[in-house]
Amino acid sequence: MQAPVLHGRSRVVALCAFYGVLSAVFCAPLFSQPLALGVNDWDQHLFYYGSVLKNVVEYGQMPYWNPWYCGGNVMWQNPQIAIFSPVYPLTAIVPLQLAMKINILLHYWIGFIGMHVLVTRVIGVTFLPAVIYVATLVTASGAPAIHLRVGHSVFLPGFYLPLQLYFFFQALKTGSWKYVFLSAATLALMVFNGGTHILPMSIAALGMFSFCAAIARRDWRPLAFAIAFGVAGLAYSAPKLIPVVQFVSGDYFWDTRNPTEHPDRVTPDILKQTYLVPTQEVSARLPLQRHGWHEYGNYIGLGSALAIVGGLIWALAFGSLSRRSAEREGGFGLALAVTTIFLFLLSLGEFAAYAPANLAHYVPLFSSFRIPSRYSIPFLQFAALTLAWAFRSIVTRYGFAQGARIAVGVLALGASAHLIYTNQWNLRNVFTEAPFDTSFHWMQGRRQIATLADASPYTPGSPMLRALMEDRSFFTCYESLQLAHGSGADRPFVFDANPGERVADLDFSPNELRFSVNDGSPDARVILNQNFAPGWTSTVGAIAPPRPTELGSVTVPPGAGGRHAFTFRPPGLIAGWALFDVALIATLVSWRSRSSPLF
Questions:
Q1: How far is CA 130 from CA 123, 305, 371, in A?
Q2: Over residues 120-127, mean pLDDT
Q3: End-to-end CA distance of the chain
Q4: What stretch of H or E contains 513?
Q5: What pTM was estimated for this model as a whole?
Q6: Which residues pair with 433 in a beta bridge?
Q7: Domain range list for the chain
Q8: Where is mean pLDDT largest: 4-18, 354-368, 499-513, 565-579?
Q9: What is the DSSP string of 172-201?
Q10: Facing residues of 260 across strands?
């Protein structure tokens, strides 16, 4: 009896369910202790999400200012803090830490689905075991898992790359501009979800592919689509991106990351361990290795490495030709291969004077991307697509006999199982800290909070998140991107610098500190005891911008009094929303525009 063949909606549902199962299997170690918490970076990143929820849920305010650590720091302007994330609605039904684990599973599922539609609908591979293998090669590779091992939730938006590429390639294949805008929307989603680390990877990959495609096709339109993608993506993300740029380029910004030591290059020994050693020990280092293994590790195994090399050779040899002239795809495979090689060279770091990573230091945006080994993520993405293109090209050219189908199917599914089993190791024992109450209560934020002055963030027990849930500000800073420090842990958030104690009745909320100024003399010099940032205003009068390590203040003369407030709103936010609105209108006007297909 022949097995039933699924069609249409039933096939879509079955495939979505299948990839959901794969994602659940891969992420299963995270759920061995569903409510357990993490340390160091996981404590920090769960604290980030908790800070947003604290502002929005318990105080009914936008996530603009973070008074919960470092003596006050920006929130909306911090590029690592996610403004939109599935975590937030999930916390309505489950605790924060479980919501994060479900969020990770959802991102893996998005990665699998994105790879499937990319490989089937763009590359044209129809042999399901091969599709599953290529999807697994990218989604279940070592890099995302090892970053999650150490708490880098900011790399989760990397799972949007397959969908981004799918929309962009569909734009090239159909000539429809709506796919350019959809691709740009995924770029904005990355930014709003705290994934600015993925931004240069995305732009470098699509920019190089479009450049190669334009040369191969002798047509400028791939570059036009790439420019439109970049402009639209940055415009869609402007409400977040403009405040971020103003923050990191301003006088009050303090980058506490260690100075870079040059050169930062991947040696042959590091390269071998990156892709071929099953379990990278996070703490162990090889000679000349500048960072921990979480910045390099991307295990794929020897078999996959050889397959990628073979796919590259085939694409370089035959990628400029097309056996299917009706699809006009000549040059597509070659553009994939050249982009793959370019990204691989980028990931090797500063190995020569004119290495791509060295040249990137002179390019805005890319100059701040300090760890070139992270380009192994988009490299593997394009390497897998090149392999898929080569497989389809070979099958089209030579056919696919039944015996070959069985052999390739067994190898592909075996390799997929191996990648899932091996890289799953990174997700074991990630969350082992004892749980505590991480629930948020609608509009029940305290109007007075204490400051935890001398606690260390490097101790067990998730100290930063615990302090947040206990309504205490964690003064010791665990943050790379922060404001120059001027605040003190021994004074209230607002106080009178002059004798007389005219300032009283502080009413705390994250973005607004309300206080009373009693009548009397002398002058009341009202001090804002938060690290200063442009964006603070007062109902008393203008705040004279202090020097970076000083506090902002206003002066209330004798006889004046009443109820006043310090309020924070990120600079550049209104300009960002205005640019977003203009981009949205332009998108609606151009949505149905199209040109002739390019491939």
A1: 12, 15, 32
A2: 95
A3: 41
A4: strand 512-517
A5: 0.94
A6: 37
A7: 77-249+266-427, 494-571
A8: 565-579
A9: HHH-BHHHHHHHHHHHHHHHHTT-TTTHHH
A10: none
